[in-house]
Amino acid sequence: MSRARTSRPFSRIARSLACFAWLVVTASPGTAAVVAVEAGPGALDAALRDALPGDVLELLPGTFPGPVLVDKAVTLRGRGGVIDGENHGTVLRIRAAGARIEGVTIRRSGFDIGAPDSCVYVEATATGAVVQDNLLEECAFGIWVHQTDGAQVVGNRVHGRAEVRRSDRGNGIHLFNGSNLIVRDNVVATARDAFYVGATEHSLIESNRADDARMGIHYMYSYSNTIRSNVMTQNTVGIALMESRHLIVEANEASDNTRQGLLFRDVEGSQIRRNRLERNGVGMFFFSSVGNEIIDNVVIGNEMGLKIWAGTKDNRVEGNVIRGNREQVFYVGSEDQIWGESGPGNTWGDYLGWDQDGDGIGDRPHRVDSFVAGLLYRYPSAVLLLRSPALELLSHLSDTMPLLRVPTVVDVAPVITETE
Q1: How far apart are CA 292 and CA 355, in angstroms?
Q2: CB atoms within 10 A of CB 98
């Protein structure tokens, strides 16, 4: 009995000491706090000045004037507050590593795309910064990520200025000289280029949407990146890949773009797989690109399916569905392009061969008629003869007269059974 009576007060004292220790820890100056910030001149600047790393500043309804500098690892969280740049300069600049901007409406940057004026500018020192679920309106550049490592741009909606001529707008999300970036689930409209990626490596561009831009996704001098499951519609060009290497471009959709759905120029060592290119001016345009794998893409319903220009060679082109285009292939080169040598070739909407042994592969190669393409390349004025009986006759004669034959695309194992 006595042991039991003495143990109870000891237990109560131990619990009291533990609670006291927890209170001391949670009340220590280094502990994160959630601070509600009311709108008003200078209110956000004062809150940022007083904040400690890890604090969460919740912006209550109202307007907070820009510019805003985030130079501590804090979180700015929208609770109805709007940060307004009033058409001057960059609205919000992130300088601190680990800072987060989430759920905030940010609007009205300046107009100078040379400065560059942005709604959000992520500096090189902001390693691991996160810009998430924000609404950005009336921006020159929407989000500019500059020489940053490990930043994430996720779930934002970015709108440029529709009244500004497209070439005078900035880009929606602009990545420059970054690495290990994640850009996912963003929606961009009314920008120059919706997503611009320059000199950036080891990054992911995934599940984004873009419309009403010059180029939906524009890659320049960027290596070892993945472009996956993006939807690019009603732009001038859906996806443009230039001067880049070791890209994975898969499961994207580019439709209703006025010029090209997918364009790649001077691209090497890349995998272009399972993309759907539909109702574009040109479905896929290769230019001076070598050593790529172009596999299992669907190219249908375009004005021109594939346009293949000089300098393009040594690519593995297999498993693609190419049908229902007004013109299947336009090829200009000095020698035949041979496809399907290492396995089944491609499915062609205009293949006229047969499959007597039932193995799903045509018994004779598919040779694309490129007589007209070569003639138009050498003599552009011949476009006036398109669909004329004379040109149709010459095109048919080119199949039997070696003198008229020009280099073309030859698929040595065309697929009979179509799969999409």
Answers
A1: 29
A2: 17
Q: What is the pTM of this model?
A: 0.86
CA distance 130 to 306: 39
Pair 83, 59: CB distance under 8 Å: yes
Q: Measure the CA–CA gap between 157 and 189, rounded to whole angstroms.
A: 8
Report the distance separating Cα 298 and Cα 55, nearest Å: 49
Return the CA Rg of the chain. Answer: 29
Distance between CA atoms of residues 10 and 4, nearest Å = 10
Res 301 pLDDT > 90: yes
The CA distances from residue 60 to 66, 91, 105, 129, 300, in Å, are: 16, 18, 12, 22, 50
Collapsing DSSP to helix, strand or coil, 328 comes out as: strand
> Helix, strand, coil % (nearest 5) of the chain?
15, 40, 50
Q: At what angle do helices 389-397 and 371-378 cross, to 10 degrees?
A: 120
- Residue 268, CA distances (Å) to 44, 244, 274, 294 in order: 48, 7, 18, 12
Token digits of residue 287: 């230019």
Query: Which tokens in the block code for residue 41?
Result: 């001149």
> Quick one: DSSP state of residue 27?
T
Give the per-residue pLDDT at 335: 87
Which pLDDT value is given to residue 401? 58
Report the pLDDT value the prediction gives residue 23, as an integer from 0 to 100. 31
Burial bucket for residue 398 (CB in 10 Å: 0-12, 13-18, 19+) = buried
Q: What is the DSSP secondary structure assignment for residue 290, as one 8-state letter?
A: B
281-299 per-position pLDDT tens digit: 999 999 999 999 999 999 9
